[in-house]
Structures are given as structure tokens and as C-alpha cells.
Design brief:
This protein is mainly β and about 180 residues long. The chain has 2 domains: about 50 residues, no CATH class; about 120 residues, Jelly Rolls (Sandwich), CATH 2.60.120. Helix content is about 5%, strand content about 40%. It is built from 1 helix and 13 strands. Strand 7 and strand 8 form a beta hairpin. The N terminus is likely disordered.
Length: about 180
């Protein structure tokens, strides 16, 4: 079967229409810009926004640039002690956009926020995914794990500024992974 391409027709029509082509613009819509031969984000008026940088590279966590998106390792060294994975910054919330963890043995793991009195995140502890104790966290099987988030959209956010993010463990089993986040 012979296929016909109508891309030349679309390009010609867009050229006749001027430097940009758009429809009723909603969030996350794109306009075709014939001067750059590409699709660019539209303004509410339907005209292309000025583009700086590489759109696929500049998308980081929670709308931040990749330069403001951070990744921290998770390694509890087979300890049941609370593990601080993100350190607080004054007057800033923490936005988590991805997390993955793998447990070497059956372990409950809780993602929490809190501050330090005696142990990491032992004061004003609030669960960010599940409860505020290891028993109410994720239940990971032997050599089991999970992945949540892609690194751009928010999956969890601290409820107050100036608080650490920790993992709590139900047992002294190896848990490894990483977390991607932004602070602002």
C-alpha cells in the first residue's frame, strides 16, 4: 500500500498563516513557530513564548530547572536507625519528585518529615507517604522495592518549611535507592 505524506501541506499552510499558529490555548499547549520550524509553549494569547535553553533538559523537579533539582542516595548500611535523606533549608519546603528503594530483606520503610532532638526526624514527625512510624510505612518484601515518580512531578511535599526528610526502618536490613527533589 502506498502512503502519502501531507507534512508539506501543513508546513505550507503554517507558512501562509504567518510566524505562529495556535488554537485556544490551555495549560501545557504548544504553538508551531515557522521561523524556528518547531513547536514552542504558547502564551494565553496563543503566541509562542520566548524559548531559552533546551526544553527537554530544563524540566526538573516541581517546575524547577535541572540545575535546581537534586538527587540524594539512600543507603541505611543495614541499620534500623532513622536516616536523614534530605537536609532542611531555612524557609524552604522540600518537594519530592521521585524515589526508589530496594530492600535486601523484608522491611517496612516510612518516608517522613521532622526535626532532630535525639535521633533524625524524631520531633514533629509527619508521614509524607503513609504514617509517621516505620510500622505504617511501605511494606517491602525480600529483595523487593518500589519506584514512585518520574523526577518532574511532585509526589510528596513537606507540610512546613525548615524540616528534614528521613526514612524510618522497621529492621536492620539493607535498603538502598535514591530520591530526587527540589527545595524552594
Amino acid at each position: 500500500m502506498k502512503r502519502h505524506s501531507f507534512g508539506w501541506l501543513l508546513a505550507g499552510l503554517l507558512t501562509l498563516l504567518g510566524s505562529s499558529f495556535a488554537w485556544a490555548v490551555e495549560a501545557d499547549q504548544y504553538c508551531y513557530n515557522v521561523s524556528t520550524n518547531g513547536w514552542v509553549p504558547c502564551t494565553a494569547a496563543g503566541t509562542p513564548l520566548p524559548v531559552t535553553g533546551n526544553l527537554s533538559v530544563d524540566l526538573g523537579c516541581a517546575g524547577q530547572t535541572t540545575a535546581n533539582t537534586l538527587t540524594a542516595p539512600i543507603n541505611n548500611a543495614a541499620s534500623a536507625a532513622n536516616l536523614k535523606i534530605i537536609t532542611k533549608v531555612a524557609a524552604k519546603n522540600i518537594y519530592i519528585c521521585a524515589i526508589h528503594v530496594i530492600a535486601g530483606a523484608a522491611t517496612n520503610v516510612a518516608l517522613v518529615q521532622g526535626t532532630l532532638t535525639t535521633n533524625q526526624c524524631d520531633t514533629a514527625t509527619v508521614g509524607l507517604a503513609g504514617g509517621a512510624t516505620a510500622a505504617t510505612g511501605w511494606n517491602l518484601a525480600v529483595n523487593g522495592g518500589m519506584v514512585i515518580g518520574s523526577g518532574t512531578g511532585v509526589i510528596a511535599k513537606t507540610t512546613v518549611a525548615n524540616t528534614d526528610v528521613c526514612l524510618l526502618f522497621s529492621a536492620a536490613n539493607q535498603v538502598s535507592g535514591s530520591v530526587t527533589y527540589a527545595q524552594f
